[in-house]
Amino acid sequence: MTAIHWFRRDLRLGDNPALHAAAGTGDVLALYVLDPRLWASAGAPRRAYLARSLAALDAQTGGRLLVRQGDPRQVVPAVAREVAATAVHVAASYEPFGRRRDDAVEWDLEDAGVPLVRTGSPYAVAPGRVRNGSGGDYKVFTPFRRAWSEHGWRPPAPDAETTAATVTFVDGGRGDPVPDAPVPAGMTLPEAGEPAALARWAEMLDGPLTRYATERDRPDLDSTSRLSVPLKWGEIHPRTLLADLAGRGGDGAETFRSQIAWREFHADVLFHHPSARRESLTPVVPESVWVNGSTEQDLLDAWAAGRTGYPMVDAGMRQLLAEGWMHNRLRMLVASFLVKDLHVRWQRGADHFLAWLVDGDVPQNQLNWQWVAGTGRDASPYFRVFNPVTQGVKFDPAGRYVRRWVPELRDVPGRAVHEPWKLPRSAAPDYPDRIVDHATERAVSLGAYHSLR
Ligand code: FAD
Predict the structure, then answer these.
(1) Which of 110, 126, 380, 417 could be bridged to 399 by S-S, CB 3.0 to 4.6 A?
(2) For residue range 222-233, what is the model confidence (pLDDT) as tens digits?
(3) Distance, CA 306 to ligand 1 centroid (Å)?
(4) Phi-psi region for residue 109, left (φ > 0), alpha (ψ -120 to 50) or beta?
(5) Atom of ligand 1 nearest to the CA of 360
(6) Distance, CA 256 to ligand 1 centroid (Å)?
(7) E strand or H helix at 439, and its extent?
(8) What is the SS3 assignment for 407?
(9) Contact by Cβ (8 Å): 212, 252
């Protein structure tokens, strides 16, 4: 008897309840369907990472991962028929695209007489489960986090080694090659796959976690976990992290747990409000504030290339181009700058992030953009406009982060690096002039905001 485990956002063996549900009935065919629509829209950094993650998973299954290209609606039922599968097992999807796809595949599988069995999800608590006293969804993060903690989650399923030793993966026959997915020129990607994710988590537990509460906002210290990438691809499950944190006290563990709760909150908000993918949940400024046409494109281009003349903004954008990742403090700053200093709609920035981030993930990306733009559920108020200079002075006090990513400013010492326009031109001759004046544009944004009050 063979059951199919259809891998999607769970590219791991360990702590994978859906895989164990499949193994509970006999042999397992490990399947990954490479949907050309998703592949085309993923952006080169995510494609390159996914190709590497699939190679790592293939190695973990002893070379038994069957990759097929095509629309899952056709591919999954076809493979199910080929191997006379008893069932197709998945971890449930909760974002709008995944839900629609799974419902459609389930429908088509019915014709083949094969059930689609959903076990678990990419979250500790499935979106939609945490409800307030009147059965509705939470609008504000803090009460959500409290209720989420009280709801609790199951202990992790067996780890990777145990799973590899107990699950029998069968040969699924002819597979399709994963298309060539080069890493974009000048970019360095982290190592993909579950073993690398577990190693990164072990390193975090051994050191930076104790300093996490105080250092997590300091991009110059680089002391966050960088687990957003493996979490995005399901190379590690948040429940694994929460179980390890449970045994530890201290501010670091508590703050880290809270960040995981933000991830679960955003997934919950998108589950209840699928339109938040593209539309502001709470429009806060008149449409007339946004720039359009070639002005919008020029500003977007300068921002995307890291050539705004504001060193912290430019450093963040260049880190994105070089690593496919950006520190959270910078994500907030560059997003605020695009929306409130350049008056470009948040959706444009979110699209650029999704094209470049290796951890690019619809619920996290869209809802964080809405948080910064002041349009989300529990959002930062619109009138909070990040100041690129004071953010630099506070979170990159010696200017090390800026000098690392903006070579034109390498010779500018100390915190002067955050205001190069105050120095003689010869101090940084190749660095661009500011494209806007922050104080002026902040006043424009606040004026627009108050006009709707
Ligand atoms: P750590 O500080 O080590 O945090 C641990 C984990 O907690 C992260 O891996 C992540 O899963 C979660 N987490 C931390 N901060 C947040 C947050 N603000 N929202 C949700 N979860 C959080 N994260 C993504 O995973 N994908 C995205 O596409 C994405 N886009 C973003 C866009 C904007 C405009 C902003 C402001 C934030 C975005 N984030 C996104 C959230 C956050 O910036 C990243 O998760 C974090 O920087 C990843 O680095 P880390 O793993 O070292 O984080």
Answers:
(1) 417
(2) 899 999 999 999
(3) 21
(4) alpha
(5) 28
(6) 11
(7) helix 438-451
(8) helix
(9) yes
Instruction: Give the model confidence (pLDDT) of 145-177 as tens digits.
Output: 999 999 999 999 999 999 999 999 999 989 999
* Nearest atom of ligand 1 to the alpha carbon of 332: 36
Q: Which residue has the tokens 């680089």?
A: 222
Phi-psi region of 415 (alpha: psi -120 to 50; beta: other; left: phi over 0): alpha
* 378 close to 390: Cβ distance less than 8 angstroms: no
| 349 contacts 331 by C-beta, under 8 angstroms | no
Q: To which residue do tokens 């493979």 refer?
A: 79
Name residue, tokens 């010779």.
Answer: 411
> How far is the C-alpha of 120 from the C-alpha of 108, rounded, in Å?
22
Residue type, 308: T
Distance CA 87, CA 4 (A): 6
> Which residues are CB-contacts of 448 (< 8 A; sequence separation ≥ 6)?
285, 286, 288, 289
Tell whether ligand 1 has an atom less than 6 A from the beta carbon of residue 352.
no
Q: What is the pLDDT of residues 314-362, one digit of tens each?
A: 999 999 999 999 999 999 999 999 999 999 999 999 999 999 999 999 9
Helices (H), 327-425: 328-336, 346-356, 362-373, 388-395, 400-405
Amino acid identity of 259? Q
Atom 37 of ligand 1 has which residue's CA nearest to it?
368
User: pTM value?
Assistant: 0.97
